[in-house]
Specification:
The protein is of the alpha+beta class. It is built from 19 helices and ten strands. It holds the Pfam family Sigma54_AID.
Length: 442
């Protein structure tokens, strides 16, 4: 076999991304806070980039959710955030307890074994550290007497019992039902529970309603839970003729290219310095250009959304959102789908109805009897209204909801789709939504 070596030329097409193009793609997918951090870091490395101080600092808007965007059925709202965590809060309480140093030390060791929800794992204990059984029990009792109520429990059942034990105005049946019939109670086998225990269904219902006021994860409220605040990249404002979409300029750092170094570039014998300054100047110019492109693209996308979703902006009703997919949006704007995706990712817009994520306005089309345009978002709002207005003693099943939505609202959904939307809205199944009355015992 003859083998030869030599040089040959081959022509091929390859996509080459310049540094500037990479920067444009990166900046487009940044939200306002990420963009500000990026520009600050770039300015530290480039002496020609100057960041002007904003006369009015960035305004932080609280993110609003439409009523019905989620259905918090069994969780109570988180209490105000605290500067320290759960352990710090409990250590503060221990400093005020009149006990021996040894018992305080043992209790602190228990605190250090709490998980993020305020529970102790099955193998948690302090006997392996030289404490007796009696000392361990005493330390555990002290731990469980601290705030928040329910901390130091080893199970959900014990957590609820610890909280219930502190309340004077609890239903008479609560302690007994939780301690003796918890499995049947949690599984909502209430008729069986009533037959075994002798409690009426209404008494069991009252206990259930009471438990909804307790917190199943007492420690989670002390782990740095902060209110959700965002800086909108865009603003929708009412005008005399309707609405107008614009950029929130206060959310983007205002930069300029310094001219102080121009004289150095013209000096002789400064080749390396001149080369360095020219590169930094070009980097700054590209940054300005890229920021303008980012703004132009995002405003263009938002204007198209505004055009399609006029019914929503006129009324503020999510059920009036029209079907709009990412591909449809990209085609209407004359940009690639990936560009549209980056323009939407993590971005928020300030509207007359609160600060909303831009992806909120994208929704798929669903079937209807007369082939009219119906959106998934609208279907979810209708579903939510049906559940909110249903007879709680006889709640609607998923199949019944599908039938009502078709008959009354021309929304053609399968039972599976209803169940999927219900899960997304955090709406429990009909068996859990059902409420009992005195007549239920009959």
């Amino acid at each position: 076999m003859n083998m030869k070596t030599g040089l040959s030329q081959e022509q091929s097409l390859k996509l080459h991304l310049s540094q500037e193009l990479r920067q444009a793609i990166t900046l487009l997918q940044y939200n306002s806070m990420e963009l500000e951090q990026y520009v600050q870091e770039l300015a530290l490395d480039n002496p020609l980039i100057e960041i002007k101080e904003q006369m009015n600092p960035n305004t932080f808007y609280h993110r609003r959710q439409f009523q019905g965007a989620s259905w918090d059925y069994s969780e109570i709202d988180l209490i105000g955030s605290r500067s320290g965590g759960l352990a710090d809060y409990m250590f503060e309480q221990l400093r005020m307890i009149d006990e021996t140093d040894r018992i305080i030390k043992g209790t602190r060791m228990f605190v250090e074994q709490l998980n993020e929800n305020g529970y102790l794992e099955e193998d948690a204990g302090i006997r392996g550290h030289g404490f007796s059984d009696a000392e361990e029990k005493e330390c555990l009792l002290i731990l469980q007497s601290l705030d928040p109520a329910g901390v130091g429990a080893r199970s959900l059942q014990e957590c609820l019992l610890l909280q219930t034990n502190r309340h004077q105005s609890k239903p008479k049946s609560a302690m007994d039902i939780i301690s003796r019939y918890f499995t049947l109670f949690a599984e909502r086998s209430w008729k069986e529970l009533s037959r075994i225990s002798g409690y009426k269904i209404q008494e069991i219902q009252n206990t259930y309603d009471y438990i909804q006021t307790l917190h199943p994860k007492p420690g989670s409220t002390y782990e740095g839970t902060h209110a959700s605040y965002v800086v909108p990249d865009l603003i929708i404002e009412r005008t005399g003729n309707g609405f107008e979409a614009g950029s929130n300029d206060a959310a983007v750092p205002e930069i300029s290219i310094s001219s102080e170094y121009e004289s150095l570039k013209s000096q002789s014998g400064q080749g390396e310095l001149k080369k360095y300054l020219s590169a930094k100047q070009q980097q700054g110019v590209w940054l300005l250009k890229t920021l303008d492109q980012r703004k132009e693209t995002m405003v263009k996308v938002m204007k198209e959304i505004l055009s399609v979703q006029q019914a929503f902006f006129q009324t503020g009703k999510p059920e009036l959102l029209k079907p709009l997919t990412l591909n449809d949006l990209a085609e209407a704007c004359g940009i690639h789908e990936s560009t549209a995706s980056r323009a939407l990712k993590g971005k928020y817009v300030q509207t007359p109805y609160g600060t909303l994520e831009m992806k909120f306005f994208l929704t798929n089309k669903i079937g209807s009897a007369n082939e009219s345009d119906q959106s998934a978002a609208g279907a979810k709002e209708v579903l939510l209204r049906l559940v909110n207005n249903e007879d709680k003693t006889s709640p609607l099943s998923d199949q019944m909801i599908a039938a009502v939505m078709l008959e009354r609202h021309d929304l053609k959904l399968s039972r599976r789709t209803v169940a999927k939307y219900r899960d997304q809205l955090k709406i429990p199944a009909s068996s859990i939504r059902r409420r009992y009355t005195e007549a239920s015992n009959d």
